[in-house]
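Figure S4 source data
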Amino acid sequence: MRELYLTPVRRLFAFALLILLLSQAAISWFAWSVIEQQIRPELDRKALTVAVSVNNKIIRALDYGIPFQRLAGIQDFFEQILKENDDLAYLVIVDAAGKTMHASGLQAEKIGAALPTVDAAGDQQVGLPVHLQAPASTAASPNRQASNFLDTPVVIRHNGAVVGFLHVGVDQSFIASRISGLRYDIGIILLTSMLIAFEVLLFIISLNYLEPMRQIAELMGRMAAGDFSYLAIVTVKESIGSLATRLNLIGVQMNQHYTALVQSAADAACKGPGQGVAAGALLARLRATYVFADSGGTHGLVQQRIVSIRILTFLFMFAEMLSRSFLPLYVGTLPGPGFGIAADFAASIPITAYLLGVACSLPFAGRWSDRIGRRSSYTQGAAVLIAGLLCTGLANGFYGLVLARVISGAGYALMFMACQGYVIDNTDDSNRSQGIAAFVSAIMVAEICAPAVGGILADRIGYQMVFVFGAVIAVLAALLAIRTLDNSRARGVTVVKQGGGAFALLLKNTRFMAISILVGIPAKLLLSGFLIYLVPVILTGLNSSKSEIGRYAMLYGILTLALTPLFAHFTDRFRVHAWMVGAGGLLTGAALLPILFEASTGHVLLGIAALGLGQAMSISAQLGLVTKVTKNEAATEGATAVLGIFRLIERLGGAAGPAIAGALAALVGPAKAMAALGAFGVASSVLFLIIFAIGNARSGESGMTGQRGVA
């Protein structure tokens, strides 16, 4: 029966996605092809604007009676202009005879002969090709080598006479790098727009086609089997909704006819025993063959709206993760905390505050969501998150920013627990894994899209507006939650034992403590300390733009999303949970060490890729290992209490990550701080494997699974 609606809906989804892909690819290709045509004229116009502005200042000085040959402060003035405008390569003044008077950005020797000849009476020219030999190191651009330039000359006139020429140059290698960067941005936008389109399209088709058609197919199947006790829940008004309405009408009429027949049988029984026996026999045959609703009433079919949680999870995660590629840099633009706190450490404090806000709010958020319902808790969390994002963007001081990040963390926790609770409420043992997979997939897609989009936006609209944009996304998420979520509470919620008893038992479980302290804490500490804090700091020091940092950071999400299912299948098949957990930690830690030899973008990328790979190896294996080694504690205290304690310990490690990384960066520098985190990851993983192997040997367990007798 499922194939009756799944196959056409899948084809519709694939067709719509293909159309979107082709249209996005066509737009991207067009933008790719016209970039060079657009950027060079823009740089020429900027060079001309700078040239005219500087020329006016020179003429004003000449009007004050300062001789052209004795203009003072020109060199410092030029160097300041070049420092503020990375796209400009040099500023040169030559006199009417072609002799170089002042030059910045390039050495003065032989410049006059290489610069283009200017017709003082002709039209203004821009972007004239020039071949100049640049020094290996200059104050304005230490890495500029021999290259081609585009020169924009301006005639310097005073009292009607030509006294000299001003030349403003743009390095063509800079133009090439800008074009390359913009093309990378186009590729990233294409990828992220397709992922976002996939999420939105999946939501629309599932809500408007897949779920209504599933209900129709289920209702038709029940009716064909003789069950008329259910009705489809009509949520659309088009042809699908019309069909569901007609089927519902048939069901209602059948139940009404049955109710009328029951009443007729009762009336016949009153007229005589013989008629009552015959009517009773007929009703018995009907009841044996068909199922009708009691008293003509009907039950609504259960709606399966897990896809709603997927899009809602993606939206709030996307809104919060937009700042991941630049948050430490944004902290540096605000007044510091004072009290002699180092800048590197201060930049980590708001990140730590946010993660502490998440960790401390999660236990309360879960209980609150159970109490007031998923829709209410999600919308309340959205309101808190919106306030936190707006306060973050509008913060004018360090401590205001820290408070704003705590507020954002609390909002995040409320929304996260509402989504997770909704998945648990609306799944059972037969489909819970699929529901959790959809939930986690939405998080991973946000991990991929948000840092890159946030970095691109920060380069173009500024840090503050990115937070405002995130708040707008959170508003959209709240409105969508009001439209799609019901306000049901957790089914069968009971008061369980408090975590204190569970924690006391778990303290005695050596392998649980090994997983928590040597795996859970280091994994989250490396994620937050390295990816969220150190990556933006180190890459900024290596002259990477915010767009580039966002592109590099999304590598983590791509690898995690793509490889987690593969490693999960491998781990479950061969039952090597502990080995995968330990290997993931070793791989991540080891990949952070090469930066000791050279602080390069390649080594940072290696660390990001290894982090994604290591997390993919250990995410599913880690949770499976915890459940295996805590069976006794879970039997007495409850699995929820055990997992809650593990998650709390793990998240405290995440909260400590930025603070530890910031303190190390203040002491030894960001690159060595990255290597120190790597060494910690390697040491903790090795110690974990040793403890686990010893524990397994003492308990007579084979392999590294945490389960007795499993090879």
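Figure S5 source data
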Amino acid sequence: MTADLILKASTIITMADAQPRAEAVAVDTATGTIVAVGTLADVQAAAPGVDVTDLGQTVLMPGFVEPHSHPILSGMVTQSPAYWIAPYMGFPTWADVQAACRKADAEAPAGVPLLFNGLDRLLQQAPLPTRVDLDPLFPSGRAAVILDNSGHAAYVNTATIDLLGWPERKPPADPVGGSFGRNPDGTSNGVAYELPAELMVLGPLLPKAVPHPLKSAAEWYASMASFGITSTSEHTYGKSQYDAYLALSSVEDCPLRLHVYHMSTEADAEAEVTWPKPAMVRKNGIKLWADGSPWVGNIATSFGYLDNDRTRAAQIELGPLAEKGMNYTRGELDAILDRFVPLGYQMAFHCNGDVGFDVVLDAYEHALARHGLLGSDHRWRVEHLGAARRDQFVRAASLGVTCSMSPFQYIYWGDLLDGTMFTSEIGSQWQALQDAFQAGVRPSFHHDGAVSPPDYLFTIQHCVTRTTTSGAVHGANQAVTLDQALRASTINGAYQLKRDHEIGSIEAGKLADFVELSADPYGVEPDQLVAEVQVLGTWLGGHRIDPKAFLAEVQAIDPSEHPDLAAAAVASKKCC
């Protein structure tokens, strides 16, 4: 390797134990690889004759690593022409959502269907919105659909039902795994439950509401880069997404490296999948589901929900569901793992409940022993883990299992979790981050786009202060240190993606993926991190990313090349 670029910053936070701080870094831009890190004098000695690019007061860090996301879907349902109406996007109440719908109906071109995403009935205190509730919000008579933030329901107005052409406005027979809400006379009430039914109402509308889904996906890519992310994943991959990710990764200014996890429910999930640029996009593993969503109430827990106005309004089954909340029996899980483990892929289980975590660990231990992998460096994963306990993290670590945590669950819902959804003993400990660190599972942080904005500095601040968006503290014992939070957002995420030898820290021989910050995170008070530290830009493989150029190149791609992308992306929405 021959360095042709030297970057000097006010300080470089390397996230490498052997050399935590540096002054300069030398890069071979032809290979995108770091050649030397250290003092400016040391780096210049390793790269003689190379001009120094002085970044001034900029602080350089390894780019943030988001190990669990859904970029295509996130872009489609959050970026224009779709409307992101989640409570944390400026719509805290049902009244705000109603106002947004009326405004969009008044301003959008006549006849164009509208797509809204992010209704949270618990946080926004919304009713179950039937077409009777939605029709007055769209007086123009256009078709409109609102997606629940959980991904488990879609709500449509009468114009959408007419667009679908259902005779006498009566929905078809319920598909396997889904259902339609019906009035006493058999007509649709405007609600579709679960993906099979949601797709039947979304299919004809999506191409009209989101005419260029690849552009929407690119805008989510650019959004992630604006928060300092340089590597991410697609945690619900299916082959219908292949061409889209190929197109995005082929664009010169693509800002993200991508790692896909093939849905176990796909017929071809065993298949080897490769892309021309494996450094940019590759298949990592298999995605499986243990249970559902805490906001819907279909998670496998040993405890129940509290009975009150909020949980009743959300129509949550109080439970506890225990193993009835599992998507599969233990025998079925064993069979699924036996199908995929011999292929050598990483396993990744969606799991929120404590009972679910026990079942997953039982299945993992059985499969590891059965296939001779106990003690190996397999790095099988478990995702989300809202209700996980310290002893479960300890057991996971002993099996070599790593955990990707969802701090957003606590940050946005913590005030409800503690005392409204669950008893304080349970709710205050939701997302037991410090327990995960102490147990040694090398936890990462993720945002599960588009369940929450992928804002790492915001997440880090709230994890260190253990505050919710209201500023309240619940379970102060689960606060983490700044160093732990930064590790969870960089090197630990790289470890979970099995790429810590290439990304996640600034070290010689690794890829030159950086985030530029306006100030040193270690030099500000934890509760002032967002106010005093801004993301200035990112580098990928030694090249500074130009988001505008990236978006312009994707905009120029003919959307007709990806006619089924919208439906395929929504079909993959199985996380929460």
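The longest helix spans residues 354-370. Residues 350 and 372 are 24 Å apart (CA to CA).
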